[in-house]
């Protein structure tokens, strides 16, 4: 019975993660197109997606490569964009930390915005899930996204500039984050963090190499943390 229940959580994760394919498909294709336009060949493009497996960081690095930014700036920007994954990992550790090392290693590679968003919501809703059930659910959420990301990256790299601009594939990036951030805005601290980050990003838009986004991200995290502390102090 336990095995059946565990398998059912895989399919729950599969179903919860499935809607994100409508974003992953154009997002991956767009990266493939951008990568070839930036001068990468097909092998380099696929290797980029397979090793980094982090769309936002990949786009940030490509943009800076096209701007001929210094290597240090490119690496620092990609790392900063991906720092949120470290926070995702810390957030998931109480739920997945007791899993075998090889499973945690695979999960670390597969932590993306979609798998985190689905998993943390499910784990909080069902705190009595066992560790195998949680891990199975987590892997279910990325069962479609992972192969589709690689496949569409390849197709984008092969098709390249043959994809018409009228398709507007670049809508995928903002839509992805809006679809994930919206449901996660559950407290005043979350709202404060988002608003401060937006305002600072607009004020620092002229900072070279898109470093204004890093400043905005840091400002948002600080503001959110301070708001959370103030709210905790006001509690009776």
TrEMBL record:
It is a multi-pass membrane protein. GO terms for biological process: L-valine transmembrane transport. Keywords: Cell membrane, Membrane, Transmembrane, Transmembrane helix, Transport. One of its GO terms (cellular component) is plasma membrane. It is found in: Cell membrane. The chain crosses the membrane at residues 17-36, 42-65, 72-90, 135-157, 163-181, 188-207. PANTHER family: INNER MEMBRANE PROTEIN YGAZ. This is Inner membrane protein YgaZ. It comes from Ruegeria denitrificans. The lineage of its organism: Bacteria, Pseudomonadati, Pseudomonadota, Alphaproteobacteria, Rhodobacterales.
């Amino acid at each position: 019975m336990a095995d059946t229940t565990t398998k059912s959580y895989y399919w729950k994760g599969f179903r919860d993660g499935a809607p994100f394919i409508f974003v992953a498909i154009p997002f991956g294709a767009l990266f493939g197109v951008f990568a070839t336009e930036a001068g990468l060949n097909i092998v380099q493009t696929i290797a980029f997606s397979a090793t980094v497996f982090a769309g936002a960081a990949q786009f940030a690095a490509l943009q800076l490569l096209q701007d001929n930014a210094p290597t240090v700036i490119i690496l620092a920007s990609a790392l900063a964009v991906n720092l949120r994954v470290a926070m995702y990992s810390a957030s998931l550790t109480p739920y997945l930390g007791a899993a075998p090392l090889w499973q945690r290693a695979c999960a670390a590679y597969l932590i993306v915005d979609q798998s985190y968003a689905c998993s943390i919501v499910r784990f909080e809703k069902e705190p009595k899930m066992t560790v195998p059930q949680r891990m199975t659910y987590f892997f279910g959420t990325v069962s479609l996204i992972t192969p589709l990301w690689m496949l569409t990256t390849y197709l984008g790299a092969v098709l390249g500039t043959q994809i018409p601009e009228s398709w507007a594939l670049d809508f995928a990036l903002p839509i992805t984050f809006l679809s994930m951030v919206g449901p996660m805005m559950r407290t005043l601290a979350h709202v404060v963090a988002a608003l401060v980050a937006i305002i600072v990003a607009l004020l620092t838009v002229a900072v070279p190499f898109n470093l204004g986004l890093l400043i905005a991200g840091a400002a948002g995290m600080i503001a959110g943390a301070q708001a959370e502390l103030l709210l905790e102090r006001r509690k009776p």
